[in-house]
Specification:
The complex is a heterodimer of chains A (about 475) and B (about 210).
Chain A lengths: L11 E6 L2 E8 L2 E8 L7 H14 L7 E5 L4 E6 L9 H13 L6 E8 L2 E8 H13 L4 E6 H13 L3 E10 L2 E11 L2 E9 L5 H19 L5 E5 L7 H8 L5 E3 L9 H15 L13 H61 L1 H15 L6 H11 L4 E8 L4 E8 L2 H13 L1 E2 L3 E2 L1 E14 L2 E12 L14
Helix pairs in contact in A: 1-3, 4-7, 5-6
Chain B lengths: L2 H66 L8 H18 L2 E8 L3 E3 L4 E12 L4 H16 L5 E11 L5 E13 L2 H7 L8 H12 L1
Antiparallel strand pairs in B: 1-3, 2-3, 3-5, 4-5
The chains are: A alpha+beta (about 475), B alpha+beta (about 210).
C-alpha cells in the first residue's frame, strides 16, 4: 500500500572532475543533463565550479535535494566482519575498525557504512579531499542530502537489474580520451563485497588486466564463489583499441550495464541512472552531508539581515512618502474647506442680520389674513345671485366676520324660501367642496300687502372654514 | 559578521527607523486631519442647510413684499390715514358710488403680525339707474379695493336695497388695511398707540343684535 501512495521524488545529481562539471536535474517529469567544461587550471577549478553552481542556484535549477557523486578512485572500500553491537556505539566501533584495518589516521578520514548480509561495507575518504570537493557546494548554499561514491550508486543500479547471481561491475574513467582510473566492484545480489580501485599512473594496460584478474581470483578465494557476469559501465562500441585489448584478457565476456537513454555521454547517462537510484533508495550509503561553517552561517545571517533592513527601509520610505502626500492633500482640502466655511459664515451673517425669519413670519400672517376667503364678499355675492330662485329677491345682504352671511328678503311663497335654503346648502366650489357648511332659516313671515301675499325671510349661512365656534344667534350688522 | 557589515546594518537600521518614524508621524497627522476635515465637512453641510433656508426665507420675503409692500421704516398715522381715505374715496368715486359717510377708525398696533391695523367705515349709495347696474358697480368697487396694495381686508359688509329717492343699493362696510412696519418703528409706536376699539365695537353690535 505504501508503494501505491509513494510520490515520485525529485533528486538532482552533480559530479565534477576530469575537467568537467556534470549535472542531472529533474524538469517536468524528465531529467535534463548538462555538462560544463572546466577551462581553469586544476588548482582553480573549484572556483569555477562554485561560480557555475551559484549561477544554477540563482536560476533555481538546483532547487531539488542534491546528491553529490564522489569519484570512486577517491575512496577506499573494506568489508568489515564485526560483531553485532549496540546501535549507539556501533558507528564508532566500525570507524575504529576501518581505520585500524586500512591503516589510516582516524582524524584524517571520513567514513560511511552500509550493513550487508556478509558484514559492514566501510567506505573511507580523506577529509581534505571531501572538503575540497564539496567546498563549491557549501559556498553556494546548496541543499546537499547525499554524498555517494559513484561505484556504490552504480552497484545498486546494476544489482536491481541483475538478480541474485555473483556480479562484477567495471567502471572506467577517462580524461582527454586517456584511461585514468578503473574500479572493479564485485558482489552478490545487493551485497557489495569487494571494491578495487586502480589508478593508471602511466602503467600499461597489461598490468591493469593482471590487477583485475587478481581481484576476481581474490573474490573467488575469499567468498568461495566465482563471478558469473561482468558488466561494463559504458558502451562497448566506443572503446579504444587499448581497452579492447584489455577486455580480451579478462576471463569473462563483457556486457553493457543498461543505462537510461537521457544524456549525451556515458557520464551523463550514469548521472541520470543515479538520479532514479537515489530517489528510489534514500537510505543509500552516503557520507554525512557537510554542515555549513558557523562563520559562513553568520555571514549569511548578516547578509539576510542587511537585505531585510534594506527592504524595511525602502518600504518605510515609500509608505512615508505616500502618507505625506496624503497628508498634504488633506491639508489643502482642509484649508479650502475653511475658506468655504468662512465665506458661508459671512453670507449667513448677512442673512441673519436681516432677520428674515421674523419678518417673513409677520408678513405671512398678514398675507394669510388678507387672503382669507371669508373676508372676500365677492365670491359670496356671485354664488348667492346665481343660486337663488327667481321667486325670491334679496333686500339685504350682511357679510359678517368669521364667515357668517345673512340674507334678508322676500318671496312669493314659503316653499321658495325653503328652495333657496336648499340651493344655498348645495352650492359647491372647488372640486365639489360645499361653500357653506350650514344654512339656517331664521324666520319666514307671511304678510299681505294690498292683494298680494308676500313672505319675508331671513337666512343665515356659515362659510366652510370657520376658526371660531359658530354663533347661532344672528346679529344685525 | 564583519565590522563593515555590522556598520552597514546599523546605518540601514537607523535609516529604516527614521523612515518608520516618519510613517508614524504622517499617519498620526493623517488621522487628525481626517477627523478635522470630517468635522469641517459636517459644519459646511450645516451652513449649507442654513444658507438654503435663509435664501428661501429671503425669496419668500421678496415675494411677500411685492404683494404687501415693504415694511415701513417709520409710521406716521396722520399721513397714512390720509392716504387710506384718499384711496378708498378714489375707489368709491371710480365706481360711481355716492359717499354718505367715510369715517376712519382707530389704528392699532398688532405686535404678532408686525403691522399697524388701520380701518375705515364707509357708507355709500349706488347712483346707477337700475339695481343691476348698481350691483355691478359694487362688484367693481370690491375688486378695486382688493387690488390695492397692501390689499384691504373687509371685515363687515352690509348691502341693503333702498327704494327712495330711487331704487338703489346702500353699502355699509368696515375696511381694514394691514400696514407692515419695521420692528424698530413698531416698538416706538407701542407706548403711544391708542387702545383698540375693535372689540368694543363688536361687543356693541352684538348687544344691538340681542
Amino acid at each position: 500500500m505504501g508503494i501505491l501512495f509513494r510520490r515520485p521524488k525529485r533528486v538532482a545529481v552533480v559530479e565534477w572532475g576530469d575537467g568537467e562539471l556534470r549535472c542531472a536535474v529533474p524538469t517536468r517529469g524528465a531529467v535534463t543533463t548538462v555538462t560544463f567544461p572546466l577551462t581553469a587550471p586544476p588548482e582553480e577549478q573549484a572556483f569555477e565550479v562554485s561560480r557555475r553552481l551559484q549561477e544554477l542556484a540563482r536560476r533555481r535549477v538546483l532547487s531539488a535535494p542534491l546528491c553529490v557523486v564522489l569519484p570512486s578512485s577517491a575512496c577506499t572500500f573494506k568489508l568489515l566482519k564485526v560483531p553485532v553491537t549496540n546501535g549507539e556505539t556501533r558507528e564508532q566501533v566500525w570507524k575504529n575498525e576501518a581505520a585500524q584495518q586500512l591503516g589510516l589516521p582516524l582524524a584524517e578520514i571520513e567514513t560511511a557504512f552500509a550493513e550487508q548480509p556478509d558484514g559492514v561495507l566501510a567506505v573511507v575518504c580523506r577529509k581534505s579531499f571531501l572538503h575540497t570537493y564539496l567546498a563549491p557546494f557549501t559556498q553556494s548554499d546548496l541543499p546537499i542530502r547525499w554524498v555517494v561514491p559513484s561505484i556504490v550508486g552504480l552497484w545498486v543500479t546494476a544489482a536491481a537489474s541483475v538478480g541474485s547471481e555473483s556480479l562484477a561491475l567495471l567502471e572506467l574513467r577517462r580524461s582527454r580520451n586517456r584511461l585514468t582510473h578503473a574500479t572493479l566492484a564485485v558482489g552478490k545480489s545487493s551485497g557489495l563485497r569487494l571494491v578495487h580501485s586502480i589508478a593508471l599512473n602511466g602503467v600499461g594496460i597489461d598490468w591493469l588486466a593482471d590487477e583485475l584478474r587478481r581481484a576476481l581470483a581474490l573474490y573467488h578465494r575469499a567468498f568461495g564463489e566465482s563471478v558469473n557476469r561482468l558488466l561494463l559501465v559504458g558502451e562497448l562500441r566506443g572503446l579504444t583499441d587499448d581497452e579492447r585489448r584489455l577486455l580480451q584478457q579478462l576471463p569473462l565476456p563483457l556486457e553493457e550495464l543498461p543505462l537510461p537513454e537521457e544524456g549525451n555521454t556515458v557520464c551523463e547517462r550514469v548521472l541520470v541512472a543515479l538520479t532514479a537510484t537515489v530517489a528510489n533508495n534514500p537510505t543509500l550509503l552516503s557520507f554525512p552531508p557537510p554542515q555549513p561553517e558557523p562563520e559562513l552561517v553568520w555571514r549569511r545571517v548578516g547578509e539576510r539581515l542587511v537585505g531585510a533592513t534594506i527592504v524595511l527601509m525602502l518600504v518605510g520610505f515609500f509608505v512615508a512618502i505616500a502618507m505625506s502626500i496624503q497628508v498634504q492633500a488633506l491639508r489643502t482640502e482642509m484649508n479650502s474647506l475653511r475658506q468655504v466655511i468662512a465665506q458661508q459664515r459671512r453670507e449667513l451673517n448677512r442673512f441673519q442680520s436681516q432677520n428674515y425669519r421674523e419678518e417673513v413670519r409677520g408678513l405671512e400672517q398678514i398675507w394669510k389674513q388678507v387672503n382669507d376667503q371669508r373676508n372676500d364678499p365677492l365670491e359670496i355675492l356671485y354664488w348667492v345671485s346665481k343660486t337663488l330662485p327667481t321667486s325670491v329677491w334679496v333686500t339685504e345682504v350682511a357679510f359678517l366676520r368669521n364667515g357668517q352671511v345673512v340674507l334678508r328678503g322676500s318671496s312669493l311663497s314659503p316653499s321658495a324660501v325653503t328652495e333657496a335654503a336648499r340651493s344655498l346648502s348645495e352650492v359647491q366650489v372647488m372640486r365639489g367642496v360645499p361653500l357653506f357648511t350650514e344654512v339656517l332659516t331664521n324666520y319666514v313671515n307671511t304678510r299681505t300687502e294690498g292683494e298680494r301675499t308676500l313672505v319675508d325671510f331671513q337666512l343665515t349661512a356659515w362659510l366652510r372654514e370657520r376658526a371660531e365656534r359658530r354663533q347661532r344667534q344672528v346679529l344685525r350688522p | 559578521m564583519r565590522d563593515g557589515q555590522r556598520l552597514l546594518l546599523i546605518g540601514l537600521g537607523v535609516i529604516a527607523l527614521f523612515c518608520w518614524g516618519w510613517v508614524a508621524s504622517a499617519f498620526w497627522n493623517y488621522r487628525q486631519l481626517t477627523a478635522e476635515v470630517q468635522r469641517l465637512q459636517t459644519q459646511q453641510d450645516e451652513f449649507n442647510q442654513k444658507i438654503t433656508e435663509a435664501k428661501r426665507l429671503s425669496r419668500l420675503y421678496e415675494e411677500l413684499t411685492q404683494d404687501l409692500g415693504k415694511p415701513l421704516p417709520s409710521f406716521e398715522p396722520g399721513k397714512m390715514t390720509a392716504k387710506l381715505m384718499e384711496q378708498v374715496q378714489g375707489a368709491l368715486t371710480q365706481s360711481k358710488l355716492k359717499v354718505e359717510t367715510l369715517q376712519p377708525a382707530a389704528w392699532q398696533v398688532v405686535n404678532d403680525l408686525r403691522c399697524v391695523r388701520m380701518g375705515v367705515q364707509v357708507t355709500a349709495v349706488t347712483t346707477q339707474a337700475t339695481l343691476t347696474e348698481g350691483l355691478q358697480s359694487l362688484i367693481e368697487l370690491l375688486m378695486r379695493l382688493r387690488s390695492l396694495q397692501p390689499p384691504m381686508v373687509m371685515e363687515r359688509l352690509n348691502l341693503q336695497t333702498v327704494a327712495q329717492p330711487q331704487p338703489s343699493l346702500r353699502l355699509q362696510a368696515q375696511i381694514f388695511w394691514m400696514v407692515p412696519v419695521e420692528e424698530a418703528a413698531l416698538k416706538k409706536l407701542v407706548p403711544s398707540s391708542r387702545p383698540s376699539q375693535r372689540r368694543t365695537t363688536v361687543r356693541t353690535m352684538r348687544g344691538e343684535g340681542q
